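Sequence design from tokenized structure. All designs in this work follow the same two-part layout: the structure record, then the generated sequence. An example of the structure record is given first.
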């Protein structure tokens, strides 16, 4: 087995280029408000909507999209570019920070318009916003393609292929979402809703996460990469891609059994890919909040994919399937999406902020605060909210889960301030 990459080596500069161009103009290392600020902004807005949901129109839709389209999509754009550069070793001047910032501003503007346009029933605003998101992601995909063409020989080129497949998924998902914002009803709307949700979750988010964790997971655990990991990831990608394609095509035009078949194919790809994570976890079990949060997120992903297959198979109509997706939303959004984002950022931010060993230690200390309590609150609360309990009990459990997730926000602020030498949290 090969050694896991040193997190300090996962940067956007190489020795030759560093002498020519300062790192602050190249990639994600150091202080970069546009990298961290929007994620924090979307997360704060999501928490606000969760608290004030009785008084906010379309609060359920808004909460989901603040997390997935807002915080998670922004982070995917930032960190997939970071890892693509680190692994593919193309010239760091290929995609300097100014270009990355322009893409992120485009994404931020487009996302903002969508998040205002849909709740206010402004379809033109939604269309323009969706177009902005698509432009940003296609621009991102073009840069990934350039990196792959110019990449030096090395391992884990497959991560770039996962990122390309993910980037190809989101524009389709956005287009379906814009259509959903129009005047549709009945079976057509239900089919569109299922296809929209699945291509965004399984494609944009799922493929990015799987492509990243095959190499990031052992690095987070500070152990060695299974020497079969790259091969397994390469073999899994066709199953994941085929399953995603069958799910979307079946939801739009086919019978429900075809969607079940697609979900099964995608699940088989996840199982095959997941073998690469077992050896590092056995060698160094998750003990820190970052790794434990990612592990919990992957378990919720498995639960969500399995439950989705059952819901689609048992649904009597597409309308009932679409309505039955509601309980699964918390699994995919809170259990999987939010936790994998929190786990990844808890590991990555201290490593790239700079400030020396003292700042690194202080940043990690913030994210380690009350690890067990936070994990129990999030995962225990979410599990209880899914049980057939009285409505008041399920609501209380969901509030506990949201509170556990919300603790990440002040901790992230504290970690960002730690690079200035402000120290670690008390307790």
């Amino acid at each position: 087995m090969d050694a896991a990459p040193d997190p300090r080596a996962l940067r956007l500069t190489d020795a030759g280029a560093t002498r020519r161009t300062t790192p602050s103009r190249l990639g994600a290392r150091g202080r970069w408000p546009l990298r961290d600020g929007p994620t924090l902004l979307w997360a704060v807005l999501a928490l606000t909507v969760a608290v004030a949901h009785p008084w906010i129109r379309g609060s359920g839709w808004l909460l989901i999209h603040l997390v997935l389209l807002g915080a998670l999509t922004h982070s995917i754009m930032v960190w997939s570019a970071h890892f693509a550069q680190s692994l593919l070793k193309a010239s760091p001047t290929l995609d300097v920070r100014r270009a990355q910032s322009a893409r992120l501003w485009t994404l931020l503007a487009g996302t903002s318009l969508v998040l205002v346009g849909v709740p206010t029933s402004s379809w033109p605003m939604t269309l323009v916003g969706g177009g902005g998101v698509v432009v940003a992601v296609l621009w991102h995909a073009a840069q990934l393609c350039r990196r792959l063409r110019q990449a030096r020989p090395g391992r884990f080129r497959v991560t770039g292929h996962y990122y390309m497949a993910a980037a190809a998924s989101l524009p389709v998902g956005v287009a379906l979402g814009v259509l959903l914002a129009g005047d549709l009803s009945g079976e057509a709307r239900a089919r569109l809703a299922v296809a929209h949700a699945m291509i965004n979750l399984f494609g944009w988010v799922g493929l990015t996460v799987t492509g990243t964790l095959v190499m990031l997971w052992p690095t987070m655990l500070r152990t060695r990469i299974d020497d079969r990991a790259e091969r397994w990831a390469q073999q899994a990608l066709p199953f994941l891609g085929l399953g995603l394609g069958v799910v979307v095509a079946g939801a739009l035009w086919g019978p429900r059994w075809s969607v079940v078949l697609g979900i099964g194919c995608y699940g088989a790809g996840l199982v095959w890919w997941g073998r690469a994570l077992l050896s590092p976890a056995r060698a160094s079990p998750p003990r820190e909040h970052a790794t434990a949060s990612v592990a919990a997120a992957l378990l919720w992903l498995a639960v969500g994919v399995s439950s989705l297959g059952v819901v689609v198979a048992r649904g009597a109509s597409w309308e009932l399937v679409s309505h039955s997706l509601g309980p699964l939303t918390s699994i995919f959004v809170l259990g999987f999406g939010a936790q994998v984002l929190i786990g990844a950022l808890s590991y990555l931010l201290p490593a790239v902020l700079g400030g020396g060993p003292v700042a690194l230690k202080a940043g990690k200390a913030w994210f380690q605060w009350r690890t067990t309590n936070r994990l129990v609150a999030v995962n225990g609360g979410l599990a209880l909210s899914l049980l057939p309990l009285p409505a008041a009990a399920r609501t209380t459990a969901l509030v506990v889960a949201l509170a556990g997730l919300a603790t990440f926000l002040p901790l992230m602020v504290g970690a960002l301030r730690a690079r200035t030498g402000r120290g670690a949290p008390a307790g």
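DSSP finds 15 helices and two strands in the chain. We note this feature because it recurs in several other targets discussed in the main text.
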